[in-house]
Amino acid sequence: MKYxxxxxxxxxxxxxxxxxxxxxxxxxxxxxxxxxxxxxxxxGIQQAQAAALSETEAGNPIQxxxxxxxxxxxxxxxxxxxxxxxxxxxxxxYQALENARLKRDERNEKMTxxxxxxxxxxxVDKLRxxxxxxxxxRAHFAKFMVKYGYCKSMQDxxxxxxxxxxxxxxxxxxxxxxxxIDLIHTAGxxxxxxxxxxxxYTLEEVEQMVSYLSDRGLDGIEAIYSTNTGFDExxxxxxxxxxxxxxxxGSDFHGANKPDISLGSGRGNLKIPYSILEKLEDRLKSRN
Length: 288
Description:
Structural class: alpha/beta
Organism: Anaerocolumna sedimenticola
Number of helices: 10
Distance between the termini: 29 Å
CATH class of the largest domain: Alpha Beta
Strand order of the largest sheet: 1-2-3-4-5-6-7
Order of helices and strands: EHEHEEHHHHHEHEHEH
CATH topology of the largest domain: TIM Barrel
GO molecular function: 5'-3' DNA exonuclease activity; 5'-3' RNA exonuclease activity
CATH superfamily of the largest domain: Metal-dependent hydrolases
InterPro entries: PHP_dom, PHP_domain, Pol/His_phosphatase_N, Pol/histidinol_Pase-like
Protein name: PHP domain-containing protein
CATH architecture of the largest domain: Alpha-Beta Barrel
Helix content: 40-55%
Pfam families: PHP
């Protein structure tokens, strides 16, 4: 049985391994394929695919699916749409991601100013010195505050300073779900509702979300996920069948930023069969 992982982050966004290191780890983890899905960027895809080609030529076959994870606004909440099999050279998607980066930069300037008012010596320039050209997220803020002794842990940083209800938090400008799905389709990809049970909705609200997204062209649901328990996976597969969606699976690997989640195996028991990738490819062919 071959296994895959279709939700993976590198240090191009808020992971800690380079795209090449992620691919090398995937080979060591005996995975047949991964999807690199960094937040609002495709910047790591070329490096990851080059590393995959090198590993494959060395006798360690590994496939890298080009992807991204887009943040969208739904019912006063930030939810995520994965784009899988997207064309990294698509100018429309590239420009949309660039616009999202600029808006994120504006928001980061405002948030660092708020945190300085709380006595935290943080600026975007200082974050850049730590993180290079990575897409800066709240995880980078938290990491900085832990490193320099302002917080005991990343969870402490989120609880005190970075949660949505914190006085220091600055909301982002988001794409609408329809805009994100259309962008992914324009770039030749499949759109997938990421970790639908992670948003603290009731099961009824999760179905309402899936129905809403399905009406706007959603292709799939991330039914297999690191934090699933009990009947979670079965419930998501039921929704996928009800709304004619394919299922995907991913660990949401972030390296040391989520130390309890391992590539390919999540919290230890995650298994995503290669057959899921084959069904995704079939869906992509039928839609295109």
